[in-house]
Structure formats: C-alpha cells, structure tokens
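Exam revision sheet. Question 4 asks you to relate a sequence to its structure. Input first:
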Amino acid sequence: MRPKPPSTRRPRHGRRADQGGFVLALTLLTLAIITVVLAYLFDRTQAELRLAQARNERTDAWLAMQDTQAEVIYRLLTNPITAQGVGNGADVIKVDDRPYRGVRGTHVSLQDARGLVNLNTATDARIQRLLAALGVEPLQASALTDRLRDFTDEDDLRRLSGAERREYEEAKLPPPRNGPLVTPQDLRLVYGWHRQDKLFDAGGIERFTTTARTIGFNPNTAPAEVLQAHAASREGVGVLLALRKERPVSELDFMTLAAGEPGTLFNPVIVIPGETFRITHYAPKARWAVRYSVTLTPRSAAGPWRIDYAYRLAQSQADPGAAAFDDRNIPALPRRLSAPAEEMPDLLAPLFGR
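Answer key, structure tokens:
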C-alpha cells in the first residue's frame, strides 16, 4: 500500500483557538473605542458644565453689580454731598476711589470727578506733570501731550512733536478723531500713546483721568498722582495727604502746603465733590469690572442722572490690589440715612411736578 501523504488540514481545535483569539481582539478593540468615546463625551460634558457655571457666575455677578449700581445712585440722589463725601457722620461714603462691599459680595468704589485730571480740558503743563508722576521722562511727556492735542484738535496742523493723518497712516492706525476723547481708554488710539503699555498697566493713567464734563478741582478726593499734577511741591503733597486723614483740606491748605495752582474762572479749586462721579464695580469671581461716569441731573426733564460713558475692563485694571483683597478688610457700604422723609433732600421732585 502506498503510504498516505500527511494531512494539511489543521486540527479543529486549532481553528477554534484562532477564532477565539480574533473575537477577543475585536472585543478589546470595541471596548477601547467605547472607552475613548465615553471619555470624550465625559470631557465634553464637563466642559459644558464649566461653561454653564461660568455663564451663571457672570450673570449673577452682573445682576449683583446692577443691584449695587441702583443702591449707589439712590444714595447719590438722596444723601447730602459734603466735603467728607456722600452722607453724614459715620454713615458717609468716601468718594476717593476706596472700595466698599456692595450687594452679594460685589465691590464698588466711587471717585469724585473733580479729583481727576480731565483729558479734554486740562492744560498741557498739568498733563505733563501727571505723566511725570507716572514715571514718564519730561521730553517724552511733552511729545505725548503734543500728540494728544493733535488727536483732539479740529485742524490738521502738526505740533512740534505731534502727529497728524500722515503719521497715523504710516503707523497703520485709524486717523485722528479731531474731537474730544469719549473715555480715558481712547488714549490707546492716540499715536505714540498706543506703544506706552506701562502707562496702562494695572489701570495706569486711566485711574487718574476722566473725560466727563466737570468744573473745578477737589484736593480732598484727588489721589497723590493727581495732586502732583496740580501742585509744585511733592513734599507738600505728602503733608496734604496726611492732613486729609484728620480733616478735609481747604483751598488755603492746598495752596500753602503743596504750592498748589490757584483756581481759575474755568477751573476753580472746590473742596466738596461735584455732581459727576466715576463708579467702578467688580465681583471677586469675575475677571472683569465695569466702570462708568454718572452725572446727577435732578432738575433735568430727561432724568435724574445720566451716564456720560461706560466701559468694561480687566479687574486688575480696575483695582491693582483686587486679587489680594480680603472682604473682611473692606467695609460695607454705610447704612442708609434714617432721617425723616421731610428732612431728606427732595431731588426727585422735578420728575413728579412737586
């Protein structure tokens, strides 16, 4: 008999093992895909939850700021405004930009506009002294002032160190406005100023300036940098700041202690706050703040107040020390005046025909 050739067929149990290995690999691959998909969906869900939480926090912060705004404007309209601030005695709200705790953990600060440098009406010398107080060299301060004037004046004549349309075109900037600044942030649109990042860091020059229409300078509410813009003696400014902690200063104090500029017809020294205030709101959980200028107009047919300008800014610009604030070190807004209604100033009377 011829011997049978060896069989080339694999054993049946070997085929089953191969099939089992394939099924196992397919199962593991399927599980891996499902794991990846689930991880992706989990990450997406977590991201959506974080976004929703952030939106809710922004909404809550905005509503709390709105409530604080209503409270602050109510106080401005109904409380007496004195050299100490808004209100009387221990219940006075200082208007020198110090922070207060507002509604639901928000922070608010009020700054009398008379204690700021008005970018649209200040003299060249005053702007240059403010820049010097912020660390700008004299020649550069003079050039920046020329460029600011060229930006706001109505003509196309270039000052010595100024800039007109040609310089803006070469720098690929929008042309000069040839009109007043609307907000202090407009300084970033001015040729030369747009490169001065240090001037805008941590609030910078915006903290000390305004563009709202106001008359007079108040040495009781001006920060040190603004006092230096109005006075010739830095040592005297320090003395004036120390005196301010004890009592409101007078025009005579300002002129004798700090060698301050005497008032003029269009910019007198007035030692009580005016009708215009810069208000800044921010919430500890928010990364932004809201700043606006409000002017009280109790006898206007258009309303008891108007918003001159408003803008949003980073919280660090609103208050450089905000990140380090401890609410326990920030006083709450003083209580409302408890005087009888007949003793309260009826500033809303014109709105109701009284």
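Marking note for examiners. The radius of gyration is 32 Å.
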